[in-house]
Design goal:
single chain, 318 residues, alpha+beta, Thymidylate Synthase, Chain A, 2 domains, 6-stranded mixed sheet, two-stranded antiparallel sheet, 11 helices, thymidylate synthase activity, cytoplasm, Thymidylate_synthase_AS, methyltransferase
């Protein structure tokens, strides 16, 4: 079984060499393999890629957003995190309230037309300012609805009750560590039609053995260049936090992906990354004496000895 950062790089090589060329909902096109697993021993270091710089602050603030059960991008923007903007922006420009220039297919058009790209950035800046400073607008267009935070913390039943899956799984780990039911699901079939983006990381499960907490994620769809490095680090951080609360050491993060793909406009970036040598992984330090997962803030995390190669930019497919 492939291990660590090299496992990620080998997945990139596999897709480039053997991936099936497929169309996708964004119109970009991908190279794809189906059914792949990687393992990361969290005692060997925090699995943040070193072959390109990955922004830990964005990962941590997004995870805290999920943990809080928040679904509005206002919290993310307040923490200078823009990774969910496009999905909220898409709803606004498709609404009757929007009266600016045509933003149809803005993701692709911004890559192909520099004049359009400048206008798109202008409209996005207007959108972000309104989210940050207009509460009514933020409530209407900043909320992404039934996404991860909602499913993790407030899963709605047919009787109208809410299930706090994350709180329940932590209690289950503490009181019945050998259970095979330490599971949180984000895939709620009833809510899929109303989601800005149906969950890519659909289900995760915890496992306790020898005083260590391990986590396995099943991800239905993985953007291997841009998204998967974030997913690896995010669930590694979640495992650290829950292990800390439950008085356990960390074990492994196991990452199982259904459709693992590289977008056609990321191929050259991936080839650049594969030419680089891996470096020692950083260490995660929790700077606070807080115990509960639900109490942590960004300032409580410190990444020690992170010395990656430079970042590699690539467009996001929306």
């Amino acid at each position: 079984m492939l291990q660590g950062e090299q496992a990620y790089l080998d997945l990139c090589k596999l897709i480039l060499e053997e991936g099936h060329k497929k169309e996708d909902r964004t119109g970009t096109g991908t190279y794809s393999v189906f059914g792949h697993q990687m393992r990361f021993d969290l005692n060997e270091g925090f699995p943040l890629l070193t072959t390109k710089k990955v922004n830990f602050r964005l990962i941590a603030s997004e995870l805290l957003w999920f943990i809080k059960g928040d679904t509005n991008i206002k919290y993310l923007l307040e923490n200078n995190n823009n990774i969910w903007n496009e999905w909220a922006f898409e709803r606004w420009v498709a609404s009757e309230d929007y009266n600016g220039p045509d933003m149809t297919d803005f993701g692709l058009r911004s890559l192909q037309d520099e004049e359009f790209n400048m206008e798109y950035k202008k409209q996005m800046d207007i959108f972000k300012e309104r989210i940050l400073h207009d509460d009514a607008f933020a409530k209407k267009y900043g909320d992404l609805g039934f996404v991860y935070g909602k499913q993790w913390r407030k899963w709605e039943t047919k009787t109208g009750e809410a299930i706090d899956q994350l709180k329940n799984v932590i209690e289950s780990i503490r009181t019945n560590p050998d259970s095979r039911r330490h599971i949180v699901s984000a895939w709620n079939p009833e809510d899929i039609p109303f989601m800005a983006l149906p969950p890519c990381h659909t289900l995760f499960q915890f496992y306790v053995a020898d005083g260590k907490l391990s986590c396995q994620l099943y991800q239905r769809s993985g953007d291997v260049f841009l998204g998967v490095p974030f997913n690896i680090a995010s669930y590694a951080l979640l495992t650290h936090l829950i292990a800390h609360e439950c008085g356990l050491e960390v074990g492994e993060f196991v990452h199982t992906i259904g459709d693992a793909h590289i977008y056609s406009n990321h191929v050259e970036q991936v080839k650049t990354q594969l030419k680089r040598e891996t470096r020692p992984l950083p260490k995660l330090k929790l700077k606070s004496d807080k115990q509960s997962v639900f109490d942590f803030e960004l300032s409580d995390f410190e990444l020690v000895d992170y010395n990656p190669h430079p970042a590699i930019k690539a467009p996001i497919a929306v």
